[in-house]
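S.,

Sequence below, as promised.
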Amino acid sequence: MARLNDQTDWVFLIPGRGSISPLLNGEQDPSTSITDAHLEQCPFCPPSRLSTERYDSLIFPNEHPVVSYADISNGQPSHDKTCDRVVGVNDVVIYTPTHNEFLHKCDTARISRFLKRLRNRHREHFHTNRIEAIYTFLATGHRFGHSQEHPHGQLLGLPFIPKKIAATIGADSTSCCICHQGEIAYERDTVICESPSFSAYITVAPRVPYDIWISAKQHNVSLADIDDEACAELAGLVKKSLGATQAAYFNPYIVSIFDVNPSNTHSHLRCEVLAFGRPSGINKHIGGYELGLGIFMNSSDPVQVAADLKAAICLDPS
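The prediction came back faster than expected:
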């Protein structure tokens, strides 16, 4: 069941999903805390029922979906404040067969191959399942609610554009927040790395010190649109951005991809690298102001953080 609260935020009520048993523990780098129990119980490590052979990456329907796949071709977004069934798609995405190869440990080639597979999945959902927006996240660290330690994430596709995505896009480059943020980043020298098709930068109002956007330089671009070369470019910037945030110590992080159907002129591909660390070496926890008011408290200077990240990238150009 879905309900729209008075703050215009959708709440998905999914009783029973919380019974999934977590294997995660601790805040340390999870790639260094693997136990035999994790390996024996892991449903994602090959050989398993998912794949008897060693795979490169996998994307498959979630066994515990937060939305309903039923009648997806007839799904329509609800304009009511409640609806009995949320129509959409919910996939599990696995970017490595190796139990402790978390995203910050992967090389650019692996990330690129995964992004190509994800691109193809976006094309499928946009073209055949009447999906309007797709949100994919890959998170590392116990705070994000993972039920399995094996590196993975989730894809959520909806037949409408959630307001968190709608707020950042516009019908053209003059009304698009993402286009505007990219321009400001160049003006304020907070771009940390770039490629011919993408730029990675600290936003003008970062929620936490390591709040990096990687966006397409051109407006009206979807992940479903880009070719293999652009996938490799995006992979390189994800690797560099994430590596820079992990240069000194492990920071729990979430990497998100926000995508809109390419048939929509508002589409503008954006990837987000959000690492919950501070230059002081202390993790940033979301507190009362953030949860209560949605106002983020960030004690860092975005320009200095960008300079630090650029320096870290220069020290480790891989």
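The chain has a mean pLDDT of 83.

Coffee later?
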